[in-house]
Amino acid sequence: MRRIAFMNQKGGVGKTTTAVNLGAALASLGHRVLMVDLDPQAHLTLHVGVDPARLDASVYDLLIDEEVGAEAVVRRVDERLSVVPAEVNLAGAEAELVSAADRQRVLRRKLEPVFDRFDYMIIDCPPSLGLLTMNALALAEEVVVPMQAHFLALQGLSKLLETVQLVRGGVNGALVVSGVVLCMHEPHTNLSREVVSDLQAFFEQSRGQSVPWSGAKIYEPAIRRNVKLAECPSFGQTIFQYEPMCAGARAYMELAQAVAGEGDGDDEPATARVQIETLGALRSPGEPQHTES
Ligand SMILES: Nc1ncnc2c1ncn2[C@@H]1O[C@H](COP(=O)(O)OP(=O)(O)O)[C@@H](O)[C@H]1O
Ligand SMILES: [Mg+2]
User: Fold this and answer.
1) Quick check: 278 pLDDT over 70?
2) Residue 291, in any domain of the structure
């Protein structure tokens, strides 16, 4: 199982969009995927069609209530896709957790019993570096950073990397940064070109060093701005349910193949197209395919 935290302390950079659509793409490629929503805004939960106001139990209960186990909070939303939903209460969890024993590792301890039921765990972090994000970093083995190639983006990244390094020196010695996904990307602006080349140079210069990002890369493809990606959350649908043929869907499917193919060096872009077409034939926009349990 691979456990990937989508982390960036800045809001609005594409964390949730990437977690949901990359997760859904991995599921459609045949992997069993569990998404964990750790943001009190519950955007991931809404995005996959679950109403955070009508939950019996959420990730909040899992964190706070010793009696609540993983089985009570994992919900299936599609054939190979499940979610641990969030709700607004989660905002209070950080304060409530402060006095808990081993407070950074609560989520890991609670979810360990279901690790073998999934191939991927996709963890959507809140836009902060607080205790919820620390729980995500203790649970994950990889960090992927969704970001925009903007001025000051690299400054934010260095703060993030510092945090990952602290966690690797403490609660999670196995944590690595796998790379960056460029979101809402505008490849033709001078600014974005400069930021991308600085980022590339930074990663190159980290090769061989004993830092958690020594193997980090900029994932291909970058995800360009696509209005369909911004529309689908309000329908509680992934991009593959909402508009499976659009550029955003194709980009996330190719990204999923790049992520899934890591290590075996065997990603064939042709397969992405076949998958998209198969999905398009099976689903038409406006028809949610959820099987809420
Ligand atoms: N590639 C994209 N094209 C257009 N809109 C996007 C794209 N990626 C994200 N968005 C929109 O940008 C906003 C912020 O994205 P989101 O994934 O919620 O960021 P975060 O989780 O980091 O706060 C959302 O309204 C989302 O729908
Ligand atoms: Mg988000």
Assistant:
1) no
2) no
